[in-house]
Each structure stands twice: as C-alpha cells, then as structure tokens.
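Model: Ready when you are.
Researcher: Fold this.
Model:
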Amino acid sequence: MLDAAAKALAQMVTPRFRTVLMKSVGLALVLIVLIGIGLNRLFVWLAGAGEGWAESLLGGGAHGPLAILAWVLSIVATLGIVVGAVFLMPAVTALVASFFVDDIALEVERSHYPNEPAGTALPLARAAFEGIKTALLAVLIYLLAVPFLLLAGLGLVIFFLATAFLLGREYFELAAMRFHSPADAKLLRKRHHGTVFIAGMFIAAFVSIPIVNLATPLFGMAFMVHMHKRLAAADERRRLA
C-alpha cells in the first residue's frame, strides 16, 4: 500500500499528469468559488430579510442596532463559508474526479502496466453519477458531524473516517469499473473492504492538506488503480490455487 501511494505521488509531477492536474485544479477552484458566492448571497439575503422582519416587529427605533447585527452576521457567515470550504473540499474533489477518471487511470495503466490490457473507459454519465452521489453523501455526513466538533474534536475524527470511507469507496470502484461491471466492482470492494478503507485513509490525509488537496483526484485515482490491480491479482491467484 505504501508502494502504491509512493508511485501515485511520483507520477503526479510527470509532464502528462500536469495537464490533467491543471484541468482538475481549475474545475475544483471554479466549483468552490461558485458554491461560496452562492452561499454568501443566500446568507446576506437571509440577514437582510431577518432584519426587515425584526424591524417590523420591534419598530423603527430598532433599525440601527438591527442593521449592525445584520452586518455582523453577514461577516460571520462569510468567514464560515471560508472555513466550510475546507470541509466541502472532499465532496468537490469527488465530483471533479468523475470527469477525469479515465485520463488518470489510462496514464497509470500505460506507465506501470504496459503489458496488461488497458481498462475500458467509463461512460461519462456513469462516472458523473458516482461522483455526484458521493459528493451529496459526503455533504450529508459532514453536516451531521458538525455538532460533534464541539465535543473535544470528535467531529474531526468523524469527518476523517467518513472521508476515508467515501473517497476510498469511490476511487476504488471507479478504478475497478474499468475492468468489471458496476455490480462486480462493488462486490470486489466489499470483499476487500478493510484494505480499501485503510487505503481511503491515505486519500483522507491527502485531502486534508490545504491547497495540495486540489490535486486529490489525481492522487486518489492513481493510488486506487494500483490498489485495484493488486487486489484483483490476489483474487485471481487464490482462484487458481
């Protein structure tokens, strides 16, 4: 597993990977900015609407204090969005990965497994579905973990473990579906769920590093291509034994 992670990291700086890296980083940044702007507009509107409602309830004399309160809440909301971007990054990178899965996987297969048949490219609709599903599930789990952030960091542990499970599952299944049907890919992942989960911890650690985490789709997919190759080969040896 350490060897697979080292190979994935080493390949990320190769010329052919750099093009995919620029595309995935660019798309991730665009999504983060658009989400941030959308949430900021929503919170500012809510603060203004709340101010108007409170003023109609309390009278015109409360306009000054309420305006200050609305302004403070808008600033707090903006800062919250910046902090929240850290928690949104795994969900965003899961979605971004679905658009570049085949470019990354094919390059790894050609570089490290030239004597083996390359996988079959996933239909874009299937890859996008897997990415959207993982992203939405990640957001739901992270929202549930937020209250636990106040309990001695328990929320951070939940966040890390959930990220390891979700991203480990997604990247492994995307790599496996290049060689198996979706059902068989899920079965293979379940058969090696412990190994895939531990491998997911490597990806969770990577995605927790600010700025570097923009390259998570490249590392996660390259890493899981190696892991799939090794686990599938181990299953084949056991079958023939």
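Researcher: Now this one.
Model:
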Amino acid sequence: MADSLGPVGRFWQLLTLGCVLLCAEPAPAASPDARLLADAADGELNEHEFISAALIASGVDDCCELAWWRAVYAELLLSALDSLEGGSTNERQSTLQLALHEQILVGTYVVSASDLRTTIGCGDYNCLTALAIHWDLCSQAGLPVEIWSQPGHVSLRSADGSVIEPGAQRQLAPPRSSKQAFRRLTPVELLGKFYYNRGVEELRAGRFAAGLALLQVSLQFDPADADARENLLAGLNNWAVEHCRQKRYDLAAPLIEHGLSTEPAFAPLVANERLVREKLRH
C-alpha cells in the first residue's frame, strides 16, 4: 500500500512516536534544571545542545515537550541555513540575519518575551531570545561571534568588532564608548539570563520563593551577574518586609540573615535587620 502521509506527515508521525518512547522510559531522578546545572558545572555544555539548554532554562521540564520544540526549531534552523551561499564572512552574516527575521523572528519585539518557546512558536522575541537563536545559527554556520552583556541588554559582536543586534535586521557600527560596563559572556553564562528574567517576573508577581530560587540558579550559571545578585538581595528584603507587615518577624529574620550573609552592606537589609531584632526582643 502506498504511503499516504507524505513527507511532512511522516515527520510528525516519527516525532510523535519519539515522544511516546521517551515518555515510556523511567523518569530520571534529577530534574531537567538539575541535569543542566550539572552539565554546565565546568563552564561548557557536554550533554545538552545549546537550544535544548535554553529551552530548559526557559521553563521546559518535560521530555516530550523538549523533543517537540527541538524538532520545530530544527526545521527553522535548516530553513535559515539553506539561505546561506558563498561570500565573505560579513556577507554571510548579513544574509543569516535577514533570514533570521524572515523565517524565525516573524512576530514583534516584546520586552517580556523571554521564553524561547514563544519565539520559536509564534515569532515574538526580546533581545535575549533573539540573541540565543542568532548565536546558535552563527555557531551552526561556522560564523564567529561573541556574546556581550551590559546592564539590561545583551548583543553580539562579529569578528571585526561590529555590533549585531539580533532584534535589528542589520549589523551596526562598532560600539561607542559608554559608561555602562560591557562584559563578554560564554554561552553557559547566557543561560543564566533566562533564569534571571523568569526570577524577576516571579518577584514582580509577589511569588518570592519561586523568584528567589530562579535567581539563585541564575547566579550558579553566571556568578558575576551583578543584576542577578542585586535583585536577589532586593527580593529577600521585600519578602522580609512583607512578613514584617503581617508581624511575622520570626519569618523575616532568616531572610534578612541570608541576604546579609551575601552582602553585609546592603542598606535596606541592614535597616530591616535592626527593626526585626528590636521587634523580636519584645
């Protein structure tokens, strides 16, 4: 009997079968986050492809879902790389950046679009998700680029020092001097930004435990991230303040103590430590 599914139908049939087989395996003891942290402990990814790692950092915690998004991304990746032809490195970089916007970043820039599933699924993106995909495309195409960070933003630089803003459709001039400190990141350190953004959103929603846990993970990927450290301290302080408003000083005290063990001079924690100590005396 002739196969009536066609190539696309066979692809999704195999993908579905793969998901079933994956889910039939016994669940490993460690969570995807824990396995990713263990893999990245030496500063490199040995067991995870970068995009798989970024999907986990975005919140994917199910093997079937991970397999699904990896397959969807693989199709987009092949389509974007097919657009590359001969030419100089800069010409190929420009072609790849154009393909990125024509085939993957087809939605709009949304500040909160830090989940890589959103970018792969519907094309909405922010500087983090756009950069993660752009960096992976360059890596797959053999185009050398560096990841650079400054407070609140990440970008790429090409071999000649030109700035590549993945959210834009062209390369920019070399960066002008700025009072803001630029810092080069490794791909593993970049993964910390996904946990950082998720943590900040949880704190904004008042979900302190979840937000602080995510910021702790972020700092495990990138211990030098000053923004993550400051938000962790602020989150501990704000949670302690919330307890103080409810007169739960015994719950506020360990949060303040934890924060001061990280940064003894953090002024809000110092002030609230005095208040809590005084309240607990009475």
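Researcher: Key takeaway?
Model: Confidence is low (pLDDT under 50) at residues 1-27, 171-177.
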